[in-house]
Amino acid sequence: MTKDVDLLVIGAGSGGYVAAIRAAQLGKKVVLVDKAELGGVCLNRGCIPSKALISASERVKHIQHASAVGIKVSGEVQVDMPEVVKWKDGIVNKLTSGVKTLLKGNGVEVISGEAYLTKPYTAKIKMNNEEQVYSYKDLILAIGSLPFELKSMPFDKKRIISSTEALVLQEVPKHLVVVGGGYIGLELGTAYAKFGSKVTILEGSNTILPGTDPMLTNVVKRHLKELGITVVTNALVQGGENTGDEVKVRVQVDGKEEVVNGDYCLVSIGRKPNTGKIGLENIGVELDERGFIKINEKCQTNVEHVYAIGDCAGGYLLAHKASYEGKVAAEVISGQNSIIDFQAMPFVIFSDPEVAYTGLTEKEAKEQGYETVSSRFPFQANGRALSVSDADGFVQIVAEKNSKRVLGAQMVGPEVSSLIAEAVFAIESGATAEDLSLTIHAHPTLPEPLMEAAEGVMGHAIHMLNKKK
Questions:
Q1: Catalytic one among 175, 320, 443, 460?
Q2: Which of 42, 114, 149, 249 could pair covalently with 240 via S-S, beta carbons 3.0-4.6 A apart?
Q3: pTM assigned to the model
């Protein structure tokens, strides 16, 4: 028997479960199917567990440096990785249980199974040893992405690992070799360095965090050096093998081949769309040259009543972007005139210190024809940052020169992953630097540098010298 449903959502990650809930709120009969856990990569094998490990490693750092504020800690800090992983898993389980409750409370039918598109408006779902055919009116593809794998050094999930395995290691590596100096490799490499690992990062380009403004990455580089992390740029990995108790990584640097030995090698060189085995060809969905699903501003594919959101649809591979698109798709399906329309997307890197940015850099703004004015306020002049012994970095605001409208913000320093939200709101609402400068910020707090930088744009900064005109 074929079961009929208004909306079938394939993929229960950050985009899929949000889309399912929003569509159910709008009166649709929704079935959500995923062969893995609710919450997808982000909740189970990405954003949440990685930030938990980063938080745990930061506590180690605080204990080790407690003497700087007069607190004496005797003995060596012991990191019990099985217990750390158990604690991390507890956080994940709590959140996945919450997602399950929300889906149930909103009337979404959840199926644990593997979906395959057999023909238009029809999907076959395999559950254990059973199969059920569903007929849908609308379909949302939220099938995510997978880690890129080096052909010369494929994952064995034992010593040559992806970020998934790096989040469940039962020991602190003696020497962790990280292939890829992007945000995932940098975040996890930094966390394990704080746990006590020797860490070597091999990056193929000429800098860590390629594509990120150098003024931000320069601050991070200083801290990597302080943590004893070795960064090798222009390093082209030729291959590697698991010899049993270590990994030998062959890398070419400046034309010379070297071998880097470590007991684990984390390969983190980006992600690819998970579009290969679901039957998209059977319903005629078009992909771009990189395998991502093509969509318009309403998240619609070229096939009527078929939508795609999140990583599989390309663009920014970010959980919050997937959730945003999930709501847009659900609302379009329900007859609302919703479109993808963001003025600013927040980017956050949980490095040491954190990096966050949104909108346009000064260079990008000028390339788009804007006359700009910018102002940078250092955390060294912020009382709260000094009181938590975390005062390296700054907040910069880029504004249009005449109107003072905020065009972008770049931050590196303590808790900027949270501070960026105010800057995103400012850009989204068309606020000016004057609006930010007139917004009273509590003292002493970390968000104050936003107000201070805005005052600098206006030319009347109080806690730093104004630029001479």
A1: 443
A2: 249
A3: 0.94
Q: Alpha helices of 277-356 — where are they, by DSSP H? A: 280-283, 319-333
What would the pLDDT profile of 283-321 be if each residue is shown by its tens digit?
999 999 999 999 999 999 999 999 999 999 999 999 999
Banded model confidence at residue 373, pLDDT cuts 50, 70, 90:
very high
443 is catalytic: yes
Question: Three-class SS of residue 393?
Answer: coil
E strand residue ranges, 289-404: 306-308, 347-349, 354-359, 372-378, 394-400
* Pairing status of strand 145-147 against strand 160-161: unpaired
How crowded is residue 83: how many other Cβ atoms within 10 Å of its Cβ? 10
SS3 (DSSP) at 412: strand
Q: How far apart are CA 313 and CA 288, in angstroms?
A: 9
Q: At what angle do helices 448-458 and 416-428 cross, to 10 degrees?
A: 50
Query: What residues form DSSP beta bridges with 134?
Result: 3, 123
Rounded to the nearest angstrom, the gap between the alpha carbon of residue 314 and the centroid of all alpha carbons in its chain is 14
183, 356, 359, 409, 426 from 420: Cα distances, Å: 17, 6, 11, 8, 10
Residue 442: CB atoms within 10 Å: 8
Please tell me the distance from the alpha carbon of residue 275 to that of residue 237, in angstroms, as a whole number. Answer: 27
Cα dist. 468→362, 378, 436, 465 in Å? Answer: 19, 18, 21, 9
Measured CA to CA in angstroms, residue 88 lies from 85, 103, 186, 318 at distances of 5, 23, 19, 21
Decide: residue 346, CB within 10 A, 0-12 exposed, 13-18 middle, 19+ buried.
Answer: buried
